[in-house]
């Protein structure tokens, strides 16, 4: 089965599939999937051998967690599944949740201990379980001290309410600091990062991926198809249709840039050579990137999920990888310039010395 090429997540004993099922689409909403379709997507993922399911407290205002919990109960698969959910966005007034009347409670969001405990209790209830396998900080709030985040999440591991924790959407320095504090104090630290990463979003390569490698954190790319853009179903002349990025949408039209259209053309060529869909090809590229442990796939239809699972079969030639890498290469940053070719040789008397983890 394509999804049983199991691996451990970061420097941990958590065993996961190469593709994780993202359930942001589960539940009501213009880009969502109703209960019947969500169940079929869940079943198709499980039929492929997948064991890693990702949700969040705010997805569809909590309905995604409720559906995931229900499907796990119905299939009696709790022991087999690595269940991941997230805290951080405000439960009372998030732009991603339906308005619920009274909003604006500052204790219903962020990474402070008070909100983490509140959010976890609510997620456990909606999921109908008494522990989370991987608890994500969805987004850094910019104010809570790293020490408090590590202590709160580490204590929850010790208490058995969560098995592991990870960080999503945070600066790289924060993850490194958390990992260092945890290592020095000999307490549980973050084992994974969840980051936007695709052929059209590679800026995490300059700081985040080196931190993940140094700190032993597995990387989970989100939006590996850039919200559907890399499936090739949009074109310059017509960005309409019925997909998530069609017309006015909460994700904006930031993907429709000249540079991204150019990347899409190279992807189209490589996909044609492989006789594969562009979506599968784009997913296979992310999955093959160094440091990527498991890639989050999203789908609004079962057929999309089934096609995306087939990405696990793709093997690129050297030339195909090179063309995709070159077409999508991010602009150099100050950090990436420090690892440019030739600099090391200059520092080591003409020798390209290899590092221990390269
Ligand atoms: N940590 C974070 O901040 C964060 C942020 C975003 C997502 N995530 C996680 O990552 C998961 C995946 O993210 P994502 O949904 O943005 O991933 P994505 O793969 O970039 O986009 C998925 C969307 O693309 C379209 N699509 C998927 N497969 C397709 C195919 N084969 N052909 C044509 N269209 C296809 C579908 O939308 P349409 O059919 O509507 O076009 C689908 O809902 C989420 O479910 C969530 O778990 C995390």
TrEMBL record:
Pfam families: Aldo_ket_red (PF00248). Residues 18-327 form the NADP-dependent oxidoreductase domain. The keyword Oxidoreductase applies. Keywords: Oxidoreductase. The keyword Ubl conjugation does not apply. It comes from the Bacteria. InterPro entries: AKR_Detox_Biosynth (IPR050523), NAD(P)_OxRdtase_dom_sf (IPR036812), NADP_OxRdtase_dom (IPR023210). This is Aldo/keto reductase. It comes from Devosia rhizoryzae.
């Amino acid at each position: 089965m394509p999804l049983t090429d199991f691996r451990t997540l970061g420097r941990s004993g958590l065993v996961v599939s190469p593709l994780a099922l993202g359930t942001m689409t589960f539940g009501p909403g213009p880009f969502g999937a109703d209960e019947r379709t969500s169940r079929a997507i869940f079943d198709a993922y499980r039929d492929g051998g997948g064991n890693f399911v990702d949700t969040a407290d705010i997805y569809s205002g909590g309905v995604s967690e409720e559906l995931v919990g229900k499907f796990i109960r119905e299939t009696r698969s709790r022991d087999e599944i690595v269940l991941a959910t997230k805290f951080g966005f405000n439960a009372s007034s998030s732009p991603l949740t339906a308005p619920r009347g009274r909003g604006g409670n500052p204790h219903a969001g962020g990474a402070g201990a008070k909100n983490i405990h509140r959010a976890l209790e609510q997620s456990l209830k909606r999921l109908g379980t008494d522990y989370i396998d991987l608890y994500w900080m969805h987004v850094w709030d910019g104010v809570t001290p790293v020490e408090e985040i590590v202590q709160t999440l580490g204590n929850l591991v010790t208490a058995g309410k969560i098995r592991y924790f990870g960080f999503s959407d945070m600066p790289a320095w924060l993850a490194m600091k958390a990992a260092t504090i945890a290592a020095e104090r000999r307490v549980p630290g973050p084992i994974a990062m969840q980051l936007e990463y695709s052929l059209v979003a590679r800026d995490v390569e300059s700081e985040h991926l080196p931190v993940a490698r140094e700190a032993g954190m597995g990387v989970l790319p989100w939006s590996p198809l850039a919200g559907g853009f890399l499936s090739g179903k949009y074109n310059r002349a017509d960005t309409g249709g019925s997909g998530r990025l069609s017309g006015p949408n909460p994700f904006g039209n930031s993907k429709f840039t000249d540079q991204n259209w150019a990347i899409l053309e190279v992807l189209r060529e490589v996909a044609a050579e492989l006789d594969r869909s562009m979506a599968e090809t784009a997913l296979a590229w992310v999955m093959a990137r160094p440091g990527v442990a498991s890639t989050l796939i999203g789908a609004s239809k079962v057929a999309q999920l089934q096609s995306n699972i087939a990405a696990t079969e793709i093997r690129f030639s050297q030339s195909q990888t090179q063309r995709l890498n070159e077409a999508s290469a991010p602009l150099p940053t100050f950090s990436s310039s420090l690892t440019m070719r030739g600099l090391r040789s200059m520092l080591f008397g003409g020798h390209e010395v290899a590092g221990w983890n390269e």
